[in-house]
Design goal:
Blueprint: E1 76-77, E2 92-98, E3 108-115, E4 118-127, E5 131-136, E6 143-147, E7 174-176, E8 181-190, E9 196-205, E10 211-216, E11 220-222, E12 228-230, E13 236-237, E14 243-245, E15 248-255, H1 257-261, E16 271-276, E17 282-287, E18 292-294, E19 305-306, E20 310-314, E21 318-320, E22 341-345, E23 355-357, E24 362-363, E25 367-368, H2 369-376, E26 386-388, E27 393-397, E28 402-407, E29 418-419, E30 447-450, H3 453-456, E31 458-464, E32 470-476, E33 481-488, E34 499-503, E35 513-519, E36 527-533, E37 539-545, E38 555-557, E39 560-565, E40 575-580
Parallel strand pairs: 1-34
Antiparallel strand pairs: 2-40, 3-4, 4-5, 5-6, 7-8, 8-9, 9-10, 11-12, 13-15, 14-15, 15-16, 16-17, 18-21, 19-20, 20-22, 22-23, 24-25, 26-27, 27-28, 28-29, 30-31, 31-32, 32-33, 34-35, 35-36, 36-37, 38-39, 39-40
């Protein structure tokens, strides 16, 4: 195992509970206040103004250093003052940036970095071509640096199915701003048809992009029978966003290019590796299914989450070994920790330390819920947990369109599961959807924002499930309950749902905007970036991009909106688009 890390002792994670001011709530719950909004102008029809000043003047220099903004995965940038519901209708295209590959990782933003070209606000973009770019976010005409042109991060291998094109960097990196380090997991391949691959955690210098250290990911765990289950880098992808917490980088894996090619055989597992930022050693390894197979950790690209003391994530469906002869023989509960929400201690060894939640309800018409989601791929794995700030609670979704509210420390349910998305019809006489593609899947973790209104009594969770409407849900800190709140009819029904982000000036009334990256509402090819009033879900503005990057939330900071426009479709221009005032 190659381990050559420099010493990095300082970890920076944005707080998720900053607040000021009060929210004016909607006067009528569950309604959509339609707004007349401009349709986004085509880039081909506008002169680009690169590096223009924002309407609010000097920005406050927010930061987006990790997937969905913080270790709680709230998806909220609480330091945005330039973009408000009043100013957003004035958004216009500022720049389009050429890239060398498809983007599945959320773009990151590191403010006030001392580079060889001077102090810059850096936009960090990772591509599936095993490249990482740093652009000047205020004048992105050429990269400040690029790592990958000389295959410093390896050669991206091909993908047989599911994700087309080269498959290099898939998960969102993480930035330690104080240490000046970018942590990125790259898949590099060699040999005939590039089918012999390694998974390597690289440390890049934030100012220059130079490779400072690397650790090849390897490891094994014992099964109950005493067998050794070894991590196979050829059968796995790292899709969940990387996590920095307490001096360690956490990296997760699910079904990969070869494992997914035989997904019905489940020739993969879910894995988590704990890597020291001090010396690059792998301090611990966890496998979701040492006595079975499957149980991948992908979360729609959402990042591994952390509370003060625990690592939190969701696993997908799996099977026991040997495979049951008939569906009726499938288990009614996990064999290990597949199809579960899982908690691991940050400060203790992981062996025999996992705490889990799985849906153990029974329905007369559908049978056991766990057995149902195992057989039909309607699992937890597509959506990760998100923290409700200051509540000691998390909210997570599932492919069934269900929302789960759980105690953060114990993973105990705080209320019955909430069937939040029901636009798609279910089969007659059934309370559950038959198969994952017939269900309103929630992808990535919900976005969460705590408002200052009513003395800070409420937080709001947002999700946009497949084949359903954008919806918000209100959390009551006093009763510890989550209830449906508002529905956006003006956003329409999206075939693939949408990936969300939120901006606000703390919890200030009237400042919060919910952002969604989705397919185009008119059914045409390409992507759409939309802005909604977070209180009412009224549509404020929308713009178009030529291609839709899947599983990527937009990044909004310092008055600018960064939207990848990439695809594996032949002829697609791989680009990043910038909108601003």
């Amino acid at each position: 195992m190659q381990r050559s890390f420099a010493i990095f002792s300082s970890i920076v994670v944005l707080a998720s509970s900053a607040s000021c001011g009060r929210l004016k709530e909607p006067t009528q719950e569950g309604t959509d206040a339609a707004a007349a909004t401009p349709d986004g102008t085509s880039f081909d029809a506008i002169e680009l103004d690169v590096g223009s000043e924002t309407q609010a003047g000097t920005p406050a220099h927010g930061a987006v250093l990790t997937r969905h903004n913080d270790s709680g995965r709230t998806g909220a940038n609480l330091f945005e003052t330039a973009l408000t519901p009043a100013t957003v209708p004035g958004l216009r295209p500022l720049a389009r940036i050429a890239l060398d590959g498809e983007v599945y990782a959320q773009p990151l933003y590191a403010p006030q970095v001392q580079t060889g070209a001077g102090t810059r606000n850096l936009l960090i973009v990772a591509t599936m071509n095993d490249s990482v770019y740093a652009f000047d976010a205020d004048a992105p005409d050429a990269p400040v640096w690029k790592t990958g042109s000389n295959q410093e991060l390896g050669v991206a291998g091909p993908t047989p199915r599911n994700i087309g094109g080269p498959n290099g960097i898939l998960s969102t990196p993480a930035i330690d701003l104080a240490a000046g380090a970018v942590y990125v997991l790259a898949r590099g391949c060699t040999g005939v048809d590039l089918q012999t691959c390694t998974q390597t955690l690289f440390v890049l210098d934030l100012a220059s992009g130079a490779v400072k250290a690397r650790t090849e990911i390897t490891g094994a765990v014992p099964s109950a029978s005493g067998a050794t289950i070894a991590f196979d880098p050829n059968h796995h992808w790292s899709r969940a966003g990387l996590l920095l917490a307490k001096g360690f980088v956490y990296v997760a894996f699910a079904a990969g290019p070869l494992g997914d090619e035989h997904e019905e055989d489940f020739v993969y597992h879910g894995w988590v590796f704990k890597v020291s930022t001090a010396d690059g050693t792998i301090a611990d390894v966890f496998c979701t299914t040492p006595d079975g197979q499957g149980g991948g950790i992908w979360q729609g690209g959402g990042g591994l989450a952390a509370s003060a003391s625990n690592l939190l994530f969701a696993s997908g469906n799996g099977i026991q070994i040997p495979v049951p002869d008939s569906p009726s023989g499938w288990p009614g509960r996990p064999v290990n920790t597949e199809n579960s929400l899982v908690s691991l201690p940050l400060d203790e060894a992981w062996a025999n330390a996992a705490r889990t939640f799985f849906d153990d309800r029974s329905y007369a018409s559908d049978g056991d819920v766990f057995q149902y989601i195992e057989k039909n791929d309607v699992d937890f794995g597509a959506s990760g947990p998100a923290e409700i700030p200051g509540a000691g609670a998390i909210v997570a979704g599932a492919k069934s369109g269900t929302l789960y509210l759980l105690d953060e420390a114990t993973l105990a349910l705080l209320q019955p599961p909430l069937a939040g998305f029901t636009n798609l019809p279910r089969p007659a006489g059934q309370t559950l959807y038959v198969y994952s593609y017939d269900a309103p899947a929630i992808l990535d973790s919900p976005v969460v924002w705590r408002a200052d209104a009513a003395g800070g009594q409420y937080a709001y969770a947002y999700a946009w499930a497949r084949q359903d409407y954008l919806k918000s849900f209100r959390y009551d800190y006093a009763s510890r309950t989550l209830v449906p709140f508002a529905v956006s009819q003006s956003g329409g029904v999206m075939s693939s749902g949408a990936m969300l982000s939120l901006t606000a000036e703390g919890g200030k009334a009237g400042s919060a905007i919910l952002w969604a990256l989705s397919p185009r509402q008119d059914g045409q090819a390409g992507g759409q970036i939309s802005a909604f009033d977070a209180a009412t879900l009224a549509l404020l503005w929308k713009g178009k991009v030529p291609a839709r990057s899947r599983f990527v939330p937009p990044t909004i900071v310092d008055g600018k909106v960064f939207v990848p426009s990439t695809s594996s479709a032949a002829g697609t221009k791989q680009e990043m688009f910038v909108f601003g005032l």
